[in-house]
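Practice set, problem 2.
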Amino acid sequence: MRKRAPRRRYQRGCIRNVEGSWILKYYDAERKQRTKTLGPSAGKDKLSRNHAERAAAEFLRPFNEDPKERKRQTTLAEFVEKVYVPIKRNSGAWRKGTEITAVDTIEAYLLPHLGTVRMSELEPDHFRQVLLKVRDKGLGKSVLSHVRTFAKAICKMAHAEGYIDRDITAALDPVTPKGAQKEKLTVTKEDYALAKRMVAERERLALDLVMYCGLRESEVYALQVGDLMEGNVLEVRRSWHQGAVNDPKSFKGRRKVGVPPKVMEALRTWAATLPDSSAAAWLFPSSTVVTPLWGGNILGKHIKPKLKPVGLDWLNFAIVRRTHSTEQEKLKTDPRIVAKQQGHSMDVHYREYVQTDTSELEAAATLLHTKFDETIV
């Protein structure tokens, strides 16, 4: 038979005047008797009996409150700071870069509007109004998606931890406002060839690893010399983002990647010229050699300025990686292989990366018309 938990009782405590001080006897959360000095009962700064009783009532208030009700009176900002972020951080659910993105998004878009709202007062409309304000600022679909994702994650945890009675963000899915959708650009082979001619060898190698091998920017700059395996294969084992070395972005991110022979030859030649070419040395080291280069700095300081005179300063690693998917689709490469190279699922491959140009749309419509029209007498 399961032992019943002791019943919580409302306590007023016992106040005694002991040797010139008001002393409160009470029971703590573990039902152990404790004492607390409330203040002097004599002298210049003495407390009256009434004041001592009020001080005792205030001190005992947390012990007399229902723990569940105490949680419900927590503000959203307090919950995020003391519960949500510590649990996510300590559980290892976040990579360093994810934590930075999550905290920045929550502090920028949720807490300014909802930080002082108590958990017991939160309603779905609170979050809907925040999403509308984000949309009205002209921010894109990606930002809205992040805000909604973190709002849902916060409320799911709050529900699980007993701070709210239900998952109130379940009502957000069908009514989330749509933000501005930016055009997903790709680069033509002519423009890519021109871009490669404009930049230095180090930047050409980084761009080629994205274009021909499908690596993420964070994976390129996390490569070590020892990741260049025998033959024309390299292994992705880590990522470098926001100044921290982490595991790859997803489970599928840890993988072996095929490399064109000419690109692999150039990589091995490059590695041989490095100050440190041992297996654990960074393939693209910073000036200190201790850490890798920062992809954002390379793009902003060494790629875009050189591409600006020819009008290609819009080019970035994301566009090059999207071009990798798009061109592989045109070549009718097995999508499973492309998804494997890029370290994500086939769903992401088609939904986020493969782009279709108007000539392909016209060809598809013409083919359907030709085949279908032939059957019409």
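Problem 2, part (b): a different protein.
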Amino acid sequence: MLTSLISALLAAILTIVGLLHALWGFGVTFPAANEQQLARMVVGKRGITKMPSMTACLFVAFSLFGFAFLALVLGRLVPMPISKWLVAAAGAGAALIFMGRGVLGVLPAFERALPEQPFLSLNRRFYSPLIFLIGAGFALLTLALPYWGWRLGLLG
């Protein structure tokens, strides 16, 4: 029950963020007034004036859609006829990627490399904590897989 909720919530968040990246790839500047302001909000690279290419934005969008699908598979909301080990490995990898980015995003070295405002304050307040929580969600879903629960003595 809880895994279904976590799975659906992760999939929804990742899908929404993926849709934003896709829109940005097609030139939509929401929630900013223009491209330069958007680039400063979501990329944060020193002196940035333009958003990354359409290809880069769409790559990120489709990657996020893939992670959303993985969340549904891990929560067993979408059955997949593939190895449980492969699903577990993908879940563990997703947890490491997202939790790693969440932690790295608040380290002083990361902040010195990307000093542009308002990205820096948005990253500290919203992006890094959300990304870390997404990673924690993937970790919980991976650990809740029936095989792991049985191995760890959590399931009968």
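Answer key, part (b): Residues 152-156 have pLDDT under 50 and may be disordered. The two ends are 17 Å apart (CA to CA).
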